[in-house]
Amino acid sequence: MAKAKKTSTMQVSDELVISMKGVNKWFGNFHVLRDINLNVFKGERIIICGPSGSGKSTLIRCLNALEHHQDGDINILGVTLDNNVRNVEVIRRDVGMVFQQFNLFPHLSILENCILAPIWVKKMPRAEAVDLAMSLLERVKIPEQASKFPGQLSGGQQQRVAIARALCMNPEVMLFDEPTSALDPEMIKEVLDVMVELAESGMTMICVTHEMGFARKVANRVIFMDEGQIVEQNEPEAFFNSPKSDRTKLFLSQVLSH
Amino acid sequence: MNKDTDIVFVRDQDAPLLPPPLMEQGLLGWFNQNILSTVNDFSSPGAAFRSVIMAVATLAILYYSVAVIWALVDFTVIEAVWSDPDGLKRTICTTEVAGGLRHDGWHGACWPLVAAKIKFLTYGAYPSEELWRVNIAGLLLIVGLVSLMFDRMPYRMLIGVLMLTVYPVLAFILLRGLGEGIGLPVVDTRDWGGVMVTLVVALTGIIASLPLGIILALGRQSEKPVIRMLSTLFIEFWRGIPLITVLFMASVALPLFLPKGVTIDNLLRALIGVTLFASAYMAEVIRGGLQAIDKGQYEAGKALGLSYWKTMRLIILPQALTYVIPGIVNTFIGLFKDTTLVAIIGLFDLLGAAQSAINDAAWSSPVQAITLYLFVAGFYFVCCLGMSRYSMRLERKLAKKDR
Q1: How far apart are CA B366 and CA B114, in angstroms?
Q2: Shortest CB distance from B297 goes to which of A93, A105, A116?
Q3: CA B393/CA B317 separation, integer angstroms
Q4: Could you read off the pLDDT tens digit of each residue along chain B, which spans 403 residues?
Q5: What SS3 state is found at A30?
């Protein structure tokens, strides 16, 4: 896998983009997020890992209001996430998301998938949107697929289109929800390469993943979650070489052994 | 045989590329696979029994199919009377015993009867000198619908919008008229009849029920409890009453609720009843499609910043409606045939006109009723088959997109 060049653009700034204070969430009676406190600065690449059911996906889905948190404050790019529909729509414009199941629109071509949001949300003229989409499809290395339909592409290609689609909205923050978990092993590399390039370009990223190699190369912070809580967080080298919590140690031993 | 030679194998020469054996391809192949294979298995008593049953069933089906088709062709073509040049009316379609010209034992269609009644069957009692208005409205409809079927048609979007907005108004003005002043005297809906009424009721019901059905389906899925409850109530209410009762109530009960002197045109009552009824059915068909959409599609739309209505319009509904084309066309076909029920409120649709023609004493004969009913059935069959074929074409076209 391409080694991420730790260039000056991978520096983290002092600008706070996401702030979560005392966030709690319940699914019915099940307490799925417990007292989450997290500050994310511009340019950070945060990897969240943990066993399934630990709430990692729920946490990032709270950040673009796909899930609603019942307690605590979430502030993104200066906007508070609450029941106000306006705020939610404003935030979603600047926060991009890539899903485990790609969620491309099967009835539209690749190009149409990418230009849909810029045209209908940002009111961009079509020609400009097409130029933007093509440049981003080139960035993810599949410009020749623009007129094909999602069903005709491989999983790795579809996920790269999903990344390009999210980038078309020019987001400030990119959220990745296990982007490679649904891919065949030989296609994981091509998607991770795109994500590495994205990190190098200075994008603020929060990524839920099991790809520890990727975490080591690109992350500036690794967070371990278990049973709805943030158990431990650290710089990647320190995290992987000398985990402090017993639970972290147990998880790493299970994940890194194969 | 050696253990090593069984495990190790390397191909040195390609196996020849051959066509399939004669009995496996083409018509012979079809016959072999679907018919012969069901009757030639005698490997066990059970299989032999099955084979015999299948052979008997196949022969029986074949015999009765031919018999029915023959009877139909015999009645409608071979034995049928095709013209009545001397205007003899009933005598040309009755046997000698009953005072007619046909030999005893004759039994065939009386097509001159249909020819004589065709104007009545198409326009009802619409005044003859105003028929041009109906013809223009009909021509515009055909031109509009046909042009919408071509993908490459220029201004297709515009044509679609015009057909949905301007055409109904234009058709109303043409068919009903506004007054003597502009040369379009009013023709009361009581005088409308035949195919004209069938098409007006069916098309209005079909076109109006689709958007209403979409809104109801979305309402039933809404997160807001009031909207969901109201939508569910509406749907269950209109689905729970037979259409005939709806029409009857609209015709009889509605005037009781209106202030004295205010009347709603009878045809309009039928149109409203049919539309509301059909939209409830349409809502459930569409809801099935909405449920088939993966939740991820909604989430992807939200994540990109699309509002609820934009997500529905651009992402969800195009997919949902494509899934349920069979269901939608099914409902349309059913609705088209249900229009015959308007007879209960005194409107003369095609069937009503046909029944009136059946009572014409000048054409009285044993084949009078059969001929007319066959004709009406044929008309409905052709229309419904047309809708069915078009929907298959539409499905095929849309399926090409997702492989």
Answers
A1: 15
A2: A105
A3: 20
A4: 556 667 888 888 899 998 888 777 788 888 888 888 888 888 888 888 988 999 999 999 999 999 999 999 999 988 888 888 887 777 888 887 777 788 888 888 888 888 888 999 999 888 888 888 899 999 999 988 888 888 777 788 888 888 888 888 888 888 888 777 777 788 888 888 889 999 999 999 999 999 999 999 999 998 899 999 999 999 999 999 999 999 988 888 777 777 777 777 888 888 989 999 999 999 999 999 999 999 999 999 999 999 999 999 999 999 998 889 889 999 999 999 999 999 888 888 999 999 988 988 888 888 889 999 999 999 999 999 999 998 898 888 877 765 4
A5: strand
Show the tokens assigned to B14. 């390609």
Asked if B303's CB is within 8 angstroms of A92's CB, the reply is: yes
Domain ranges for chain B, please list them: 31-78, 113-126+187-402
Sheet with A45-49: strands ordered across: A95-98, A173-177, A204-208, A45-49, A221-226, A229-234
Residue A62 C-alpha from the chain's centroid = 12
Residues whose CB is less than 8 angstroms from the CB of residue A168 and which lie 6 or more positions away in sequence, other chains included: A114, A115, A117, A118, A129, A132, A133, A136
Q: What is the maximal distance between C-alpha atoms in chain A?
A: 55
The CA distance from B161 to B168, in Å, is 11
Cβ of B401 within 8 Å of Cβ of A117? The answer is no
Distance (Å) from the alpha carbon of B38 to chain A's nearest alpha carbon: 39
For residue A24, the surrounding DSSP H or E stretch is strand A16-27
**pTM of the full structure:** 0.81
Q: Is the Cα dihedral A20, A24, A25, A31 positive or negative?
A: positive
Q: Where are the alpha helices (DSSP H) in B149-257?
A: 156-176, 195-220, 225-240, 243-252, 254-257
Whether residues A120 and B296 touch (CB distance < 8 A) is answered with: no
Q: Is residue A66 within 8 Å of residue B305, measured between CB atoms?
A: no
Characterise A246 by phi-psi region: left (phi > 0), alpha (psi -120 to 50), beta (else): alpha
For the beta carbon of residue A83, count every other beta carbon within 10 angstroms: 8
The residues that bridge with A202 in the sheet, in sequence order, are none
CA-atom Rg of chain B in angstroms? 29
**Nearest alpha-carbon partner for A46 in A36, A32, A33:** A36
- Interchain CB contact of A106 with B (< 8 Å): yes
- The angle, 0 to 180 degrees and rounded to 10, between the axes of the packed helices B368-399 and B325-338 is 160
Q: Left, alpha or beta for B22 (phi > 0: left; psi -120 to 50: alpha)? A: alpha
The token pair at B39 is 């009757």
Distance between CA atoms of residues A141 and A200, nearest Å: 16
Classify A227 as helix, strand or coil.
coil
Q: Give the DSSP letter of residue B35.
A: I
Single-letter amino acid, residue B136 = I
What is the CATH T-level fold of the domain B113-126+187-402, as seen in this structure?
MetI-like fold (1.10.3720)
ipTM: 0.90
Residues of B within 8 A of A66 (CB-CB) are: 299, 302-303
In the stretch 243-302 of chain B, residues with CB closer than 8 A to chain A read 294, 296-297, 299-300, 302
Residue A79 contacts B, CB cutoff 8 Å: no
| Chain CA centroid to CA A217, Å | 16
CA separation for the pair A144, B355 (Å, rounded): 64
User: What single letter denotes the amino acid at residue A113?
Assistant: N
